[in-house]
Specification:
With 102 residues, this protein is an alpha/beta fold. The protein has 6 helices and 4 strands. It has one domain: Rhodanese-like domain (Oxidized Rhodanese, domain 1).
Length: 102
């Protein structure tokens, strides 16, 4: 379904290219959700902890692709990161890019 929507409305962000260029996949789900399945190499910082981890995220000095279960929390995380000066992209559902990262 997600692929269908992307094809209908277009997805201008090439997540594959971002990841190949070194972007970090940041999963903003809870640790329990993350442990039940996640992208290979993804980092887990729950949405409610993002603000307290801005300095650490900035030290990565790389673009960040936020993901969650449905795309809602990752959209919020993207906004928080952008306001803090981090190059961020909302990747939506974590499993929509799972084939790209592993």
């Amino acid at each position: 379904m997600i692929d269908f929507v992307k094809k209908m409305f277009g997805n201008s962000t090439d997540y594959d290219a971002l990841i190949k260029a070194g972007a970090i996949v940041l999963d903003v789900r809870t640790p329990g959700e993350f442990s039940s399945g996640h992208n290979k190499g993804a980092k887990n910082i729950p949405l409610d902890s993002i603000q307290n981890n801005i300095a650490a995220i900035k030290k990565w000095n790389k673009p960040v692709i936020t993901v969650c279960r449905s795309g809602a929390r990752s959209a919020m995380a993207k906004s928080i990161l952008e306001r803090a000066g981090v190059e961020a992209y909302n990747g939506g559902s974590w499993n929509s890019i799972s084939g790209i990262t592993g």
